[in-house]
Amino acid sequence: MKTIKALKWRYACKKFDSNKKISNKKIKRLKKAFNLTATSFGLFPLKMIVIKNQKVKNSLLEHAYYQKQVTDSSHLLVICMDTKMNDNTIDTHFDYEIEVRKTDKETLAGFRQNLKDSFAKKTDNEKEQGSINQAYIALGNLMTVCALEKIDACPMEGFNPKKFDEVLDLKSLNLQSVLLLPVGYRAKNDFMSDLKKVRKPLKKVIIEI
Ligand SMILES: Cc1cc2nc3c(=O)[nH]c(=O)nc-3n(C[C@H](O)[C@H](O)[C@H](O)COP(=O)(O)O)c2cc1C
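Output (structure tokens, whole complex):
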């Protein structure tokens, strides 16, 4: 019930109290939660930018259609995807797995090659869409963790990723922004916080067989 209570407590925060800041301890927890996100084959084609700097947040406001959550939040999390997914990415991942788990190199050799073959068949668009999907998993994971940590958040795809990439110079890091998650604490007068959740009845969304 604790989980459901937290999920009912959370909402897409429209108005943050800009005076309330999230502690470093809690931000560290969010970073760890992000890193613990499950991704397809564990390749983790993602990075997260944590923006605390108010000037940087201000410069991004216009590129998020002036949604004030960007500037009023305590921290703006930008979930980004790697733009260079290639054999090297796969090798780096497998080499690291071997190091961490002390797995025999030969045991993983077939799997490693299969993965390379399957990526080689994908178009750039398919690879990009695959990475975008992983970003959404990270977003969902972070939103749940925020709810459990009593941190308010607003998932956002309402922004101009190209402009964000320019301002944050993401190209030089081989990254593209995919999603935003401003986090902080709700303002007392955010009328959205008291609204009832709009969700279909369970029997309309669950099929039991
Ligand atoms: C992927 C995604 C993108 C969203 N983009 C925005 C956004 O740009 N701006 C905004 O105010 N809310 C945004 N929302 C919030 C949704 O409108 C909100 O989650 C939905 O109406 C359900 O309400 P609740 O989260 O308060 O339960 C987004 C939500 C998701 C999951």
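The two ends are 25 Å apart (CA to CA).
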